[in-house]
Amino acid sequence: MSTTEPVGPGRAQWGALILFAGASGAVDVLAFIALGRVFAGVMTGNLVLLGLSLTGTGDEGGPAAPLLALGGYVAGVAAVAPFSRRRPEELERHWPRTVVRWLAFEVVLLAAVAVVWGAADGAPAQPWLDVVLVAVAVAMGTQSAALARTGAAGGPGTYFTGTLTQLVVRAVGPAGERRADLGSLARLVALTAGAAVAALVYAASAPWAMAVPLLWASAALACVAVSPRPDRSTPTTATTGGAP
Asked: What values do phi and psi take at 2, rounded to 5?
């Protein structure tokens, strides 16, 4: 079937989605090991940790860290949501310009965090530790909300349980519906790789650790910021599927 707007991400968008998954993994592992044993982008986990902290039975400390992460994430989402609508003239396969601008804001915010983190020798004292936690949570909220506005040309930015579920369903579902979802697999691999690299850098040289998510996110932004925009007058063939 031919349409004027392809379905699903283009190659540049797939590259960005995979790289943003790596940034998410890197931020979350650093938040967990260095910012209060909470997550910057996985709010389900933070709600569980908040519930645990309220019982006084765990060893993870009080509710302050999960509440700060939750608050920062919500603030990031709330800031993006009203301003990231797709314009009628923008092709479905390409991300709206406002989305790209918000993702650029995320990169700037991560860069500021990396500078503060490095200046503190990888171990900021209070209240800067809380400031960093809120900042990276805002960055992840921004990323999630921006990518949620990309429609069929995007995907999740920080939460991947649904991605894993779809990957398994598509792989082992009814015989006539089985297919390889290489795009989802690549995002899950990038998420794990981002976390592993950030943890290794933190162990080797803590002041440089926050540069890891910055590099992943910067590379992701570059994918969509420099990708050419097609001629809107040229019909293209619709594509489906989960692989780039």
From this structure: -105, 135
